[in-house]
Amino acid sequence: MDPFQQMTDWKKNMDHFFGENFWNEFEGIIKPNIPQINMYQTDHEILCMVNMPGMQNLNQLDIFVNYTTLELKGNIDLEQANGTVIKEEILQGVFNREINLPFPVRADKINATYRNGLVFIQLHRLISDKSKKNKVEVQFMEDE
């Protein structure tokens, strides 16, 4: 049984008592986000490093980018050894995570690579015609 399912059931019961919004600030403590990510920003790029240990098949991860949102869907499935779990700190399971980006990104210029248990996603800033510097013409007004 998924250990987080019991927490989800417990949370639902507590929602009835405290109200649904009470737990929003505790979400990362009760159930840590998976996959874990680091995000770095420069003037024109965003680099996301996604922790995906043991990925043998690139189909285990779906990446979607929509303007200012990065969505990650997939499954972290570590091959388990026989025996009873003594300690389990590497998070695994099915995930669906949306991350807000600091600025809009181009849909046509996205690079993703996998190396040493990390997925590197390189996104490029969308510079639209609206954001270009427009020269404003100054006109003389006749004195009255």
Automatic annotation (TrEMBL):
PROSITE patterns in UniProt: SHSP (PS01031)
Domain called SHSP: residue spans: 28-141
Pfam families tied to this protein: HSP20
CDD domains the record matches: ACD_sHsps-like
InterPro entries registered for this protein in UniProt: A-crystallin/Hsp20_dom (IPR002068), HSP20-like_chaperone (IPR008978)
Assigned protein family: Belongs to the small heat shock protein (HSP20) family.
Protein's name according to its UniProt entry: Hsp20/alpha crystallin family protein
Species this chain originates from: Oceanobacillus halophilus
Organism ancestry: Bacteria, Bacillati, Bacillota, Bacilli, Bacillales
